[in-house]
Amino acid sequence: MKKTIQTSIFQNHLNDYDRFVKVRNYKTGNSQMYQNVVLEFLIWLEESGITNIKSVTSKESVRYFEYLILRPKYRGTGTLAEKTIKFHLFALGLFVLNLLENKVIDKGFFIPSYSNANQKSRNILSVEEVKTVYEYCQSEQERALLSVAYGCGLRRSEIEALDVKDIQLSLGMLIVRKGKGNKRREVPMSDKVIEYLKKYIIEERYQFLVGKTVLEDALFVNAKGKRTSGEQLNEILKRMIEQTHKYDLIQKEITLHCLRHSIAYHLGENNAGIEFIRGFLGHSQINTTYLYAIKNKKRKPVTTF
Predict the structure, then answer these.
(1) Class of residue 85 by CB neighbours under 10 A (exposed 0-12, middle 13-18, buried 19+)
(2) Residue 61's domain is classified under what CATH number?
(3) Alpha carbon 120 to chain centroid distance?
(4) Both 60 and 164 in a single domain?
(5) Across the chain, which distance is largest between two alpha carbons, in Å?
(6) Percentage of the chain surpassing pLDDT 70?
(7) Residue 66 belongs to what domain range?
(8) Cα distance between residue 16 and residue 98, in whole Å
(9) Active site residues
(10) What is the pLDDT of residues 151-210, one digit of tens each?
């Protein structure tokens, strides 16, 4: 049986929207297509326990976006095509505009975009491949680098800027003092990450500073006792990948930023909330987090390492 709206005020919103679309005569599709999009959205809200449009926040729009990319087609097999999802989001954007113009809501809730089809996707590692790289590490520094790049999802510039004092082992937190846009954030560390960083700091890092007159504060230091540059860090990772002698892995040309994408995907696959992933990665725009994690949720779920 076809579902219908149960809330009278939602039906009024739908009727207003139908008039709004017809007056503007949008060329993409017909008015019934626009109405069906909003009808589905309003029914979804009701089924989620929301019967007041003013209660809708960006959190709900995030959940609805996830619902759309996983929703099966009503006709045929598989999930919705990207073109269909983009139309849904466009129609919902018009719905928000209509609500604003009618002063039903004072502030529009977030409607994401879905237009990354032509962007080259970054290579990512599977969880098993991450485990393989860990297994072939030949030093505590290599394990520590993998831990902050993958385990903490840091950008290359953030890794380069890390000081030893930023690793709060007792609190299980890593401090990014100046991320993108000079924003500070605290990143939780897993027990394994804490273990690897502790061993590197206590047992190995000091070796790079022996005999140096000026001691470096950086977490990662090179053979000269100086802060390791981002380019040097990527070279270390490249060497780590080559150490596995796994042809398929080497061919992926993994960089530090690929590891950041990898943890984002794995968190998304394990149903971590989009807001958690956003905070973990330090994104200012939630759209960026979608591109990192949510679009990949059609893949088979896995367990992060």
Answers:
(1) middle
(2) 1.10.150
(3) 16
(4) no
(5) 79
(6) 85
(7) 8-101
(8) 8
(9) 155, 180, 257, 260, 283, 292
(10) 999 999 999 999 999 999 999 999 998 877 788 888 999 999 999 999 999 999 999 998
| Domain presence at residue 71 | yes
Phi-psi region of 58 (alpha: psi -120 to 50; beta: other; left: phi over 0): alpha
Query: How large is the average pLDDT for residues 239-245?
Result: 95
Same-domain check for residues 251 and 142 = yes
183 and 48 both lie in a single domain: no
Query: Could you tell me whether strands 173-176 and 167-168 are parallel, antiparallel, or unpaired per DSSP bridges?
Result: antiparallel
The tally of domains found in the chain comes to: 2
Mean pLDDT across the stretch 255-260? 91
Determine the Cα–Cα distance for residues 255 and 152; give it in Å rounded to an integer.
15
Instruction: Give the tokens for residue 154.
Output: 């840091």
Do residues 49 and 140 touch, judged by C-beta distance below 8 A?
no
The two three-digit tokens of residue 102, written as one number? 């009618």
DSSP 8-state assignment for residue 180: G
Query: How many residues are present in the chain?
Result: 305
CATH number at 250 reads 1.10.443.10
The answer to whether residue 304 sits within a structural domain is no
Could you tell me the two tokens for 177?
A: 């003092």
